[in-house]
Amino acid sequence: MRTLLYAIGPMLFDSLGIIVFAVLLAVGAGIVTATVAGTVVAVAVVGYELARGHKVAALQWISLASVLLAAAATLFTGDPRFVMAKPTIVYLIVGTVMLRKGWLNRYIQPEQLALVGDVMDRFGFIWAAMMFASAGLNLVVAVFFTASWPLFIGIFPLASKFGLFAVHIAVVHFIGQARLRRGAGGQLEPLAAE
């Protein structure tokens, strides 16, 4: 439970702009309103981190860039199809960033990194795969099921992320506990041995 609470705060904070955008779309606020609100929140998150002198995480920059791109496209073109395709581009960018080893280390307590760092790296690639799958699914829904897209974008991204997050935390916790019981603190066995 401690690991879950430690990780959930930064994850929600990093994605807050996108979460606000998606939730507002899901409740029918409209694309312009959702985009403006998401942009304000994403700018506030990055501004808050900069004001505190903290390094801005990659997902925070991506959240800000994605809502700014949606805001510009929506306000300049008025074409909702661009906004519908935009998550595909964002998911591809996020998935590519997630292919970098160690990006998940921010979401785990530093003292646990030596114990389950290899598991976190593997989950980093699983997260990337989910982003690539989400990119494809978003494009299919936007092109072939356009009327259902607002419902899809309001539910699927958050549900899939929270679902994978729950599995991720449970698996990391289980493996970490198993390694502690075996006394594997100094010499970790490879994940395949789990």
UniProtKB/TrEMBL annotation:
Protein name as catalogued: Intracellular septation protein
Keyword Transmembrane tagged: yes
Signal sequence interval, chain numbering: none
Coiled-coil parts of chain: none
A Gene Ontology cellular-component term: plasma membrane
Alphabetically ordered keywords of this record: Cell membrane, Membrane, Transmembrane, Transmembrane helix
Source species taxonomy: Bacteria, Pseudomonadati, Pseudomonadota, Alphaproteobacteria, Sphingomonadales
Transmembrane segments: 16-46, 58-76, 88-104, 125-145, 151-175
One Pfam family in the UniProt entry: IspA
InterPro entries registered for this protein in UniProt: YciB
